[in-house]
Amino acid sequence: FKGRSKRHHCHALIQYPAMMVPQMQGVLIDSILSVDENVSTIFDPFVGSGTILGEAMTRGLNFTGYDINPLAILACEIKKGPFYLTALTKKVADLFFRLDKDKSKAKDVCFEGIDKWFENSVQIDLNRIRRAIQLEKSKWARKIFWLAFSSTIRLTCNSRSSTYKLHVKSEEQKEKIPCPKLTFRKIISKNIQSIKEQKELLNKKNYLNKSSYKGVVSICNVDTKNGRKRKGKYDLLISSPPYGDNATTVTYGQFSYLSLMWLDLNDITEKINSSLLDKKNTIDSCSLGGSLRDSKMKRELLSEISPSFELCARKIKKLCPENVKKLASFTFDLDLSMASSLEELRDNAYMVWTLGNRRISNVEVPLDKILREILESKDCKYVYQLERTIHSKKMPSRNKVASTMGTESVLIMRK
Hints:
The structure is a single chain. The chain is α/β, with parallel strands linked by helices and 415 residues long. Helix content is 45%, strand content 14%. The strands form 3 sheets. It has a 7-stranded mixed β-sheet with strand order 5-2-1-6-7-11-10, with helices on both faces.
């Protein structure tokens, strides 16, 4: 997929950490559809920004996605529609009118550290944008505006854009922060074009009923370790789990924290757990591997399930015994997620996992082998594995500790 990773239509609505290549996931879906004609619903237990959702919709399939991060839920809520473009164009014009009219310097948003992360002039503009959005009467339109607002916040805050973790910009970098109002206008205009492309694509394939998707799409703010305690009996699972604990790999929570502090969570969904924003690292702490408690017990249990896990743990222990806790905690939570996810799949359903092998103490963690062994311990069958080079990396090939991932695996299993 070298040179084929450009993001079109709904895939271009948000820049989110560690996004999958849409075209590649589409081919994987088509491969499964070619051998299993009974697939009507796809399940993604780590939905993220909704790459699989977008590809499922362009094939007229039903879809259910889980994620613990409210920002991911917001992105997916917009991707599923409705697509009222004529009304949206009018609402954007009204939004910009309200924004230009607002000369108030009032600050409605206040949270710990706000002055550290936002310049005073930026705060004033962001509050004006927020008020203009809140005056919109239609919730579906507010969601679209909130997503554009979240990207605006990311681009105009004092946190460096070169990392997903919250690190303060230099004074020189702060001087180059763009105007929030202009940035917001550009993002809104770009996102409307992406929504238009998505609607045209779905309409061309006859997957729309007026301006709404014909299929059933369900997006849930759920901790995948616990699932929803229901048996949905989905036909196909396609996903990419985190490659390690969020605190030391991709900090999805920190990436989203500043944006979420400005948004109205009730507009995303009434079932959002607001305690996820208690601290900047709460989402990451609640995610896979977020708790290091009982790591010895976790390692003992996992050693009986996965020989590859135990071999890796021994190598890491020789170099840094403390880091074995990270590996054990993450893998234990991954095992819980697999048990939960399998409950929601019908018998003989395929699973397609896109995986990367991270490093701990410069020891490669064979996530592909570990996940295969976890699933086989739950009576799942191995089907096939593919390897590919990651061509469009945004991360450097090395960091201060070790080489970063240059390849990824696609593991195909069957329940």
